[in-house]
Amino acid sequence: MRTATLLWVMALAPAARSQDGAAQPLVVSIEGPELVAPVSEAVHTVCVINRGNEAVKGVTLRASLPPVLQYRNRTTGTALRWDGVDLAPGEIRRYSFMTRTPAEGMGKLEATAYLANAVVGGALSRKIQVVKGPLVLANLGKTGSPACAGKRHSLSVEISNPSASPVTGIRLEVPIPEGMEYVSAAGPTPASRVDGGGRVRFDPISTMHPGDRLTFILQFRILRPGPVPCAAAVAFDGAPRSILEERWTEVRPAAPDGSVWLTLDTRSEGSGEAVTPDVVFIDGKPLAPGAPVQEGSRRIEVMKMGYRKFEGTLEITDPLQEGRVRLSLTLVPKPRPLMLNLQDKNTGAPLSPDSVLWITRGGSSPVKEGDSVSPGAGRIRIEKKGYRDIEEDIVIGPDEAPHILRYSMVPR
Question: How many domains does the structure of the chain reveal?
Answer without folding.
Answer: 3
